[in-house]
């Protein structure tokens, strides 16, 4: 089932989410719905707060970026061909490498894209959908998507990384999103 995406301005997007157990109600269905929602919205990642759940869960698929890249982009990123993964109870262990810029957007903040600086690599501890534990290091585009989605479960948004002047310039657009004046190609829930 395709779920509505929570829009910028909603309190849930500023919530530090909590770990869950394998007994979390209808977890398999929730994950299935998140994949369906992410793909229907043309996203490469989706975090639980974006569908109004305050739990440490996100899904991401960096394979899509590599499948759709231009010929001259092939081989540019070390994580090619990408991964498709569920992350539950994720906690960052280490950030490494140089910070690099990449143009990011967010399903909860439609029609706004900005260059954001993030570390090249992230080491993260998490469990998968079967609650098998992992501690893995990711890099490139995959690391970037993980860090973007991880921010969501920590109550942060990509716009938090912008310089004050840039944020000020975006204030009107962000207010329009909050008020429901900006439409996306997918169903959204706007703050009351």
UniProtKB/TrEMBL annotation:
Manner of cofactor binding, per the entry note: Binds 1 Fe(2+) ion.
Active-site residues, Swiss-Prot/TrEMBL: 149
Record carries keyword rRNA-binding: no
Keywords from the named record: Hydrolase, Iron, Metal-binding, Protein biosynthesis
Catalytic activity: N-terminal N-formyl-L-methionyl-[peptide] + H2O = N-terminal L-methionyl-[peptide] + formate
Transferase as UniProt keyword: no
Pfam (any one): Pep_deformylase
Family: Belongs to the polypeptide deformylase family.
Residues binding Fe cation, per UniProt: 106, 148, 152
GO biological process, one term: translation
EC number in record: 3.5.1.88
Reported cofactor(s): Fe(2+)
Role: Removes the formyl group from the N-terminal Met of newly synthesized proteins. Requires at least a dipeptide for an efficient rate of reaction. N-terminal L-methionine is a prerequisite for activity but the enzyme has broad specificity at other positions.
Protein name per the record: Peptide deformylase
Listed GO MF terms: metal ion binding; peptide deformylase activity
């Amino acid at each position: 089932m395709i779920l509505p995406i929570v829009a910028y301005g909603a309190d849930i997007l500023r919530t530090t989410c909590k770990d869950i157990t394998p007994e979390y109600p209808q977890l398999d269905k929730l994950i299935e719905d998140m994949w369906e929602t992410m793909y229907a919205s043309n996203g490469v990642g989706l975090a639980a707060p974006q569908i109004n759940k305050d739990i440490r869960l996100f899904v991401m698929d960096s394979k899509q970026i590599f499948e759709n890249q231009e010929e001259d982009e092939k081989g540019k990123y070390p994580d090619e061909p990408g991964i498709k993964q569920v992350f539950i109870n994720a906690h960052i262990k280490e950030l490494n490498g140089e910070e690099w810029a990449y143009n990011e957007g967010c399903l909860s903040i439609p029609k706004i894209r900005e260059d954001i600086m993030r570390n090249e690599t992230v080491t993260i501890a998490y469990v998968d959908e079967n609650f098998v534990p992992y501690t893995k290091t990711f890099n490139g585009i995959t690391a970037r998507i993980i860090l973007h989605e991880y921010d969501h479960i920590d109550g942060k948004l990509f716009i938090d990384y912008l310089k004050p002047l840039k944020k000020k310039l975006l204030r009107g657009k962000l207010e329009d999103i909050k008020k429901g004046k900006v439409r996306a190609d997918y169903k959204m829930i706007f703050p009351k």
